[in-house]
Amino acid sequence: MSATLKRGSAAIVGVAESDLGEVAAGMSVIDLMAQGVHRALADCGLTPADVDGVFAAAGQVRMPSTALCEYLGLKPRYQDCTMMGGSSFMTHVAHAQAAIELGLCEVAVIAYGSTQRSAGRKNVAPREYNPYETPFRPVLPASAYALAASRHMHQYGTTREQLAQIAVAARQWALLNPAAWEKEPLTVEQVLAARMVSHPLTVRDCCLVTDGGGALIMTSAARARTLRKPAAYVLGVGENISHQHISNMADLTVTGAARSGAQAYAMAGLGAPDIDVVQVYDAFTITTLLFLEDLGFCPKGEGGRFVSDGAIAPGGRLAVNTNGGGLSYCHPGMYGLFVLIEAVRQLRGECGARQVVGCETAIAHGNGGVLSSQSTVVLGTAATL
To answer: How far apart are the C-alpha atoms of 267 and 7, rounded to whole Å?
Structure first.
């Protein structure tokens, strides 16, 4: 798709989270989506009457775009509820850009919501039976990511301490974010000593379990220039699906991010050295490491050494997951939308103590399933057009 889209033709103009953490009793998935939509529209000065495109994904609602339209009284000309797990929202950005270019809609909403924490994980989504994996009783999704971590450690000498550095860096960023769930410092030693979930990943290598949702608003570049806040222009997009089950992943150390990232960079006319801030889906510490490699920020196999010594923490050489990520900020079932929200805020200069100075370009990368689907968006300020 990226080969047919025009660099910078559309922009993200409004972003917002719903309530996060553990939401009030009785709040539904659609309540959280709608809350995010209202807040994102207010962020850019638009109203529900302006919305003519609706994009949504959710794990707890069968027809999320339809349900959201009914709830808000929206009558869109175009809707899309593509579901690829946590990478869905980056794919929605690409689809919304295409729809805007084709005149199918002018103002698009992309929304998500989850009550995973308050509902209880077992009540959110039943596990599918897989005859090649289920008999071995894996703790999914953790065991799938643990396989990738174990293989990377075996093949490249990556250490548990290096993986722990990723969790520590995320926590340091979270301590600069008032909205983050985690409020206490974290050390490498604490990560390693935490309860083992699926070797080599302890509970501190794993994402949070929270409620939450949010939304973002997209429109054409021309209309974006008339709205109240600086826009984040879509410079490049890319996506890749490599497998459904981890037992069918061709190489546990190489994800589809290598392809989705290459597509997004080609459309943007940029490369990893041109990116000022990196937001990647960090459901587990190993995902941050794999995506930094596959998106070109370090060579394959060098991720462990790359993230060591605070390199991706505040003050390090590369700003990664500046809101605290899924490891320490929030993770309500699917985290991809929040990666985009933070990227936009960094480009606007709205992040306070965690703001990356001089941020003009950002990459937002989403992951779905068990490293199954990958989708990448490169964003930039008006100065990059």
So the answer is: 6
